[in-house]
Design goal:
The chain is 60% helix and 0% strand. It is mainly α. The longest helix is centred in the N-terminal third of the chain and has 18 residues, at 2-19. The radius of gyration is 18 Å and the shape is globular.
């Protein structure tokens, strides 16, 4: 879903500069419907929700390796089958499962202040998860990742995300989790027993708190990720989130080569990341009017 979030962000940008108007959460929602198809839902059923195409478009959905069922979250499946059109003002449910945070980092990629990145993270999250502690945790990660991509220190990035968080209603639970995670990490890399005092990581704010503790306490990418995946809770989720933070902080040079050697779909991940950088920095193929070329629009149709 992180890959499809990224694709949706790219396609929203393509639409904005080609059509002059765009609602990015809607474009990301369409990307999630394509993801739903990769998880086994027939396209004939998915397309009736909102998509009129006889077959899904763009290159990402055609990657064979994505068409395997990867323990998708029940909330994501049920919300998308119902349309996936939740908003922060009109929640689709009361879920705050940690999966909503795991996929949120790409919402921080578009340039802009922390507040705008936070808002986009919340909007994208609310498509499927309606509890404030779910979408606010996603917004926090998006804002923090965006600041790190811009070159801010980890402390500065987390401070900016915290300021953005406090501006939103119903933030108390998420703020308490963020503060607890940062306090724990400030004491050094946490042991599993210490992390478990933050919760199991099964819900958004707990997963975010555990990831923050590991990111703040780590001296290197591999230290933080190893700590995040070796507690007894939802450790794959917390490992994913801390990887987003420390990867944005240190870049690809910080990633252990031996971990990358056997990374599944590495070429797909790298191609999509490179395309996101091209599109969102304004370097993607374009004509004299700044609109996407036919080839780029075919790769990333603007809807």
């Amino acid at each position: 879903m992180t890959l499809f979030t990224t694709e949706g962000i790219i396609r929203a940008s393509v639409r904005a500069r080609t059509k002059g108007i765009c609602h990015p959460p809607t474009v990301v929602r369409h990307a999630y419907l394509r993801w739903l198809h990769t998880q086994g839902d027939p396209w004939a059923a998915v397309r009736t929700i909102d998509l009129g195409d006889d077959r899904p478009d763009g290159w990402l959905v055609a990657v064979p390796g994505l068409h395997s069922r990867r323990a998708p979250g029940n909330t994501c499946l049920s919300a998308l089958r119902r349309g996936g059109d939740g908003t922060t003002d009109q929640p689709i449910n009361d879920s705050k499962g940690c999966g909503v945070v795991m996929r949120a980092a790409p919402a921080g990629f578009p340039a802009g202040p922390a507040e705008k990145r936070f808002e986009l993270g919340c909007q994208v999250a609310a498509l499927t998860h309606g509890h404030p502690s779910g979408y606010l945790s996603a917004g926090y990660l998006a804002a923090a990742v965006g600041a790190l991509v811009d070159g801010d220190s980890l402390t500065a990035a987390l401070d900016a995300a915290t300021v953005a968080l406090i501006a939103w209603p119903k933030h108390a639970e998420t703020l308490a989790a963020v503060q607890a995670g940062r306090r724990l990490g400030a004491r050094g890399l946490p042991a599993p027993a210490a992390l478990e005092r933050l919760g199991g990581g099964w819900v958004g704010e707990e997963a975010l708190a555990i990831a923050l503790a590991c990111a703040v306490g780590a001296s290197a990418f591999h230290d933080g990720v190893l700590a995040a995946v070796n507690h007894s809770g939802d450790s794959d989720s917390t490992g994913s989130i801390v990887g987003n933070l420390l990867g944005a902080l240190g870049g690809t040079a910080s990633l252990p080569a031996e971990w990358l050697a056997d990374l599944e779909l590495r070429d797909v991940i790298e191609d999509l990341a490179a395309d996101a950088a091209l599109e969102l920095r304004g370097d993607a193929p374009h004509d004299e009017r700044g609109e996407a070329t036919d080839g780029w629009f075919l790769r990333y149709p603007g809807w």
